[in-house]
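Progress report, Aim 2. The chain analyzed during this reporting quarter is listed below.
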Amino acid sequence: QVQLVESGGGLVQPGGSLRLSCAASGTSGIHAMGWFRQAPGKEREFIAAIRWSGGSYGNTYIADSVKGRASISRDRAASALYLQMNNLKPEDTAVYYCAAGRPITSTLRTVGGHGYWGQGTQVTVSS
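Predicted structure tokens for the chain:
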């Protein structure tokens, strides 16, 4: 059973940075892990993903909306996933979710491509 627990959210001033962490367990059959976010009244949005196993192991994928401001990394030995976001903007305010699954290339950036989700951590960007 895959379990994902996010941490690191909070209140950040515009222009600030944060690092979200995801502690994962039961990931032996997982092909990819990623981060999504959901703002009030909006659909859940892809942020970043990383291949967890297979020939593309370690490959990262970043959404155009945060490219240049976000990076994803992992510590496979510790089964931990991280999201670093810099130059935060008020529009980055959302609940951030850690996700895991067995997506193929065409579903890697979709909610449906990931079958396992954490409970989410709130990020609020405000002065």
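The chain has a mean pLDDT of 94. The longest strand covers residues 18-25. These observations will guide the mutagenesis work planned for the next reporting period.
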